């Protein structure tokens, strides 16, 4: 039927509300997507992190998924399902663009950054143990293989921009061996791309400079180990108006899962207050990834126009529209 089937994980908290918005907008835009909804709630009898096989098979079959947020317990409890998904499908690069939205005023103008986060290891390897009572060790695993893979991805990604530049963000001054390996691997991969300007910066300094003036970071592809990318991407979201606005793509060699940077927002869940823009922009990234550029463009333009007009905005953007009112405003623009 000329349609593509995409796996849809609606997620927890505000997940179903922002997912509904995407489904309505895709239907109104005649986007050629058939959603295949799957439940990723772990099957208790199969162990705490066992994602139902049906969900795994769906992603493997469709190769592309859109995902709402999944809540992760603090301290005790199951390993994050988000991490399990990233690892199961070897989604080694997490692409997190962050662009100012015209018409929505923040202390910063014209932010246009992209951050690429290693997505499979580092502090997220899940290797922690008690040495003796009161002393815990957490292993930050850095491998040349995973570093090289995400770094090469970052350079290839940079090739698509007009004046390609790549910057590796690190703390190799302190983590001399682990971040040191990431940095030297970057320096080696850079030699494969002589036309791309390459440099490096310490993470703390990058934070300071970005909150002072982010514009010098425009058009630089920043690539970094997992945890740094987690933290820096929330900070970047803060520059343009918050987590309601920033999308991401978890990219692997075979499958990809697109999701917002934000979580399940339990404080506003079920109240029709969530901003669906982050998931919508993730779905635009997904359409671009699938080569459906005209559909991506059409939906993207309607979102940007609605925000630029400034009449129908959700509470996080100082507006008083509900999720569904904002969704309808976008649909009117299509
Ligand atoms: P969060 O991103 O859920 O919320 C942080 C703040 O941002 C809250 O005040 C929330 O109301 C606001 N916010 C987030 N998204 C919004 C949106 N779309 N519209 C309007 N406001 C929005 O972070 P948290 O509270 O630290 O985490 C809650 C849960 O989500 C945790 O269990 C966490 O592990 C999980 N989480 C999941 C993902 C994911 O699935 N990829 C990402 C981050 C956090
Ligand atoms: C994100 C989230 C996840 C992370 C959590 C929910 C596991 O914060 O996607 O940024 O830490 O990577
Ligand atoms: Mn995060």
UniProtKB/TrEMBL annotation:
Every Isopropylmalate dehydrogenase-like domain range: 5-330
Name of one Pfam family that matches: Iso_dh
GO biological process, one term: tricarboxylic acid cycle
Record key words, sorted: Magnesium, Metal-binding, NAD, Oxidoreductase, Transit peptide
EC number: 1.1.1.41
Cofactor(s) for this UniProt protein: Mn(2+); Mg(2+)
Protein family according to the UniProt entry: Belongs to the isocitrate and isopropylmalate dehydrogenases family.
Subunit structure: Octamer of two non-identical subunits IDH1 and IDH2.
Protein name: Isocitrate dehydrogenase [NAD] subunit 2, mitochondrial
């Amino acid at each position: 039927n000329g349609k593509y089937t995409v796996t849809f994980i609606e997620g927890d908290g505000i997940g179903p509300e922002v997912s509904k918005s995407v489904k309505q907008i895709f239907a109104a835009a005649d986007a050629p997507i058939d959603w295949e909804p799957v439940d990723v709630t772990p099957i208790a009898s199969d162990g705490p992190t066992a994602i139902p096989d049906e969900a795994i098979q769906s992603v493997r079959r469709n190769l592309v998924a859109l995902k709402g947020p999944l809540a992760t317990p603090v301290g005790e409890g199951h390993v994050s399902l988000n991490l399990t998904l990233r690892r199961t499908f070897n989604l080694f690069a997490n692409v997190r663009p962050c662009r100012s939205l015209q018409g929505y005023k923040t202390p910063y103008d014209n932010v246009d950054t992209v951050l690429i986060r290693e997505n499979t290891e580092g502090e997220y390897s899940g290797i922690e143990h008690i040495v003796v009572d009161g002393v815990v060790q957490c292993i930050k695993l850095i491998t040349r293989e995973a570093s090289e893979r995400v770094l090469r991805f970052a350079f290839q990604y940079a090739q698509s921009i007009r004046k390609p530049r790549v910057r590796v963000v690190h703390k190799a001054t302190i983590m001399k061996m682990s971040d040191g390996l990431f940095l030297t691997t970057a320096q080696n991969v850079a030699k494969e791309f002589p036309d791309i300007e390459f440099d490096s910066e310490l993470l703390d300094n990058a934070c300071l400079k970005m909150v002072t003036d982010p514009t010098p970071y425009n058009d630089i592809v920043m690539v970094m180990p997992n945890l740094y990318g987690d933290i820096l991407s929330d900070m970047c979201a803060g520059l343009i108006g918050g987590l309601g606005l920033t999308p991401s793509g978890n990219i692997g060699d075979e499958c990809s899962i697109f999701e917002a940077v934000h979580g399940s927002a339990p404080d506003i869940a079920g109240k029709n207050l969530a901003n669906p823009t982050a998931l919508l922009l993730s779905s635009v990234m997904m359409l671009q990834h699938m080569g459906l550029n005209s559909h991506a463009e059409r939906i993207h333009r309607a979102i940007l126009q609605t925000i630029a007009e400034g009449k129908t905005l959700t509470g996080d953007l100082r507006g008083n529209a509900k999720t569904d009112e904002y969704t309808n405003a976008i649909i009117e623009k299509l």
